[in-house]
Amino acid sequence: xxxxxxxxxxxxxALADPTRRAILARLASGECSVxxxxxxxxxxxxxxxxxxxxxxxxxLIAQGREAQWxxxxxxxxxxxxxxxxxxxxxDIWEQRLDRLDIYLQELTAKEKKHGRRxxxx
Amino acid sequence: xxxxxxxxxxxxxALADPTRRAILARLASGECSVxxxxxxxxxxxxxxxxxxxxxxxxxLIAQGREAQWxxxxxxxxxxxxxxxxxxxxxDIWEQRLDRLDIYLQELTAKEKKHGRRxxxx
Lengths: 121, 121
Description:
The structure is a homodimer.
Chain A: H1 3-15, H2 18-28, H3 34-38, H4 45-57, E1 61-63, E2 72-74, H5 77-87, H6 90-120
Antiparallel strand pairs in A: 1-2
Helix pairs in contact in A: 1-4, 1-5
């Protein structure tokens, strides 16, 4: 298995949880301690620590090694990989939206035509 | 839980597997049958079908209902959501890369200075 593939596996698995995504969102505005991170979630410290371990293993956060205050910070490099991976499919979602757009325009045109016919009767 | 959050959960979970990502890559070039999809993976049909069910539940593929040939096609809308979600963090990864760039420039400048000093001795 390629290393990139392995990274995407662990990154996607780590991101498949709303608490972990919320932790990343909080860390996007700056470093903070595990206690500060735990506050909004009404979770036990071990539960938060478990989520942090998953994020750390996926390379999405790093935790300081200071004895008292172990600040967590976000590491966005895997998120860049996620964005780039998803971007490969941009053509497909844009084509779909283009087709939907054409369909809606045709529908509107038909309705207008139909409306005019009705009024002209 | 918000519906978007729920969708991202199932999308990310579905994408955390290299076979499922390879299936999406294959479908990006056009519809194909389950048999055709199974070929490159050396997997049993039930194993492939299981992956397809996960992708279908996540809204990433749709499967035709024709009795004989049930063509699979990619549905890229959840991938658009993934790209948009990751894009929120672009500032962070670009800042990091900017900082790395500045650091490397400083390092190169220092080395040049050092090199000149060495040569002038």
